[in-house]
């Protein structure tokens, strides 16, 4: 998705905004930076380790956002990329009327009360005959939040290959595919998923990432929002005030139906930095973790994506020596002074070591 840009009628406004932004290179700016306490550092470390954290506060909530209920206003899909010792990939032959006889990865929709991992195990067993365990999440895809698909690299732990004699409404049969023999595929989209699995087996480019069972009522993201310049590093934090005490935490951004999760991040930038948003580029680099627990239908069907995102100038050649000032007093930047933590974040940023999230 492109940076936040105005309509053509707003082009003059955009140019003026970009010129003002570029001039910040020479204009003296006093940046009010809050102190990052141990609680925030601990929260960031947990995210970098792929761990979950409860979602007590929602910081950016659209007017039309609502709690999600599986099969009513949200659809989650799981798919598995599984290889045998020869490097062949597990495929299943479809039994559904609209794609009868075509081949696809083991995949299907999550059922009420399932965790993401349980859904993966069930689909592979029903369609291919094998028990399996996920190794890592490879990527997440979404289609304007109409559906969200989780693709895993997984391994066989038991069972046997489903034969044509065992055909049922779930699938006709399963087989191992060497990716060379002719096979009529239900969709070409799975080829990129298989390629991702091949590449990860050859050289993992991000740490193992598996969903954490933690409840959430909405679809949201908790971005590790990074701004870096000349080895200095800042994180954008939200403020939560209770009485006389103000607590800082990573912001939680709710996604509404009909719009992508990534778009919610763009809108957050616009709302948080209204004076400069046209000259800024929000870049969601990938996922640090996924939190979901669907055991209570209608109350915990949501998902929190812990993401890694950067905020960069969208004006070519423009630079900043410090992050742009938020217009909204609910948010503040904190410089990361813990050298170990800063090193971890900068290394992940350099290596781009995250499972990707893609909007289709």
From TrEMBL:
InterPro entries from the UniProt entry: Nudix_hydrolase, NUDIX_hydrolase-like_dom_sf, NUDIX_hydrolase_CS, NUDIX_hydrolase_dom, NUDT18_NUDIX
Molecular function terms, GO-annotated: 8-oxo-dGDP phosphatase activity; 8-oxo-GDP phosphatase activity; metal ion binding
Gene3D superfamilies: Nucleoside Triphosphate Pyrophosphohydrolase
Cofactor: Mg(2+); Mn(2+)
Keywords carried by this UniProt record: Hydrolase, Magnesium, Manganese, Metal-binding
Keyword Nucleus attached: no
Segments forming domain Nudix hydrolase: 73-207
Family note: Belongs to the Nudix hydrolase family.
Name used for this protein in its record: Nudix hydrolase domain-containing protein
Organism in which the protein naturally occurs: Hemibagrus wyckioides
């Amino acid at each position: 998705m492109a940076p936040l840009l105005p309509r053509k009628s707003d082009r003059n406004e955009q140019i003026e905004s970009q010129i003002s932004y570029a001039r910040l290179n020479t204009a003296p700016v006093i940046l009010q930076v809050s102190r990052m306490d141990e609680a925030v550092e601990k929260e960031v470390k947990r995210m970098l380790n792929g761990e979950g954290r409860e979602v007590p506060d929602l910081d950016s909530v659209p007017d039309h956002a609502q709690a999600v209920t599986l099969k009513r206003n949200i659809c989650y899909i799981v798919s598995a990329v599984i290889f045998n010792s020869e490097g062949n990939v597990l495929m299943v032959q479809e039994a559904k009327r609209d794609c009868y006889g075509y081949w696809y990865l083991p995949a299907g929709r999550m059922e009420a009360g399932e965790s993401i991992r349980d859904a993966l195990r069930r689909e592979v067993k029903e369609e291919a005959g094998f028990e399996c365990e996920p190794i890592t999440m490879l990527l997440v895809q979404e289609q304007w939040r109409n559906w969200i698909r989780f693709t895993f690299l997984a391994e066989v732990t038991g069972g046997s290959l489903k034969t044509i004699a065992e055909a049922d409404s779930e699938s006709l049969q399963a087989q191992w595919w060497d990716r060379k023999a002719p096979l009529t595929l239900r969709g070409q989209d799975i080829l990129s998923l298989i390629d991702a699995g091949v590449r990860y087996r050859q050289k993992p480019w991000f740490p193992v990432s598996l969903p954490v069972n933690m409840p959430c009522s909405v679809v949201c993201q908790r971005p590790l929002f990074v701004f870096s310049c000349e080895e200095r590093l800042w994180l954008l934090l939200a403020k939560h005030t209770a009485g006389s005490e103000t607590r800082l935490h990573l912001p939680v951004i709710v996604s509404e139906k009909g719009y992508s999760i990534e778009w919610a991040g763009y809108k957050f930038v616009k709302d948080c930095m209204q004076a400069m948003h046209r000259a800024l580029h929000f870049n969601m680099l990938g996922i640090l973790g996924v939190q979901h627990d669907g055991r209570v239908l209608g109350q915990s069907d949501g998902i929190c994506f812990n993401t890694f995102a950067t905020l960069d100038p969208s004006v070519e050649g423009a630079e900043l020596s410090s992050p742009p000032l938020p217009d909204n007093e609910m948010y503040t930047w904190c410089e990361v002074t813990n050298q170990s933590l800063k090193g971890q974040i900068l290394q992940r940023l350099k290596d781009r070591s995250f499972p990707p999230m893609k909007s289709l």
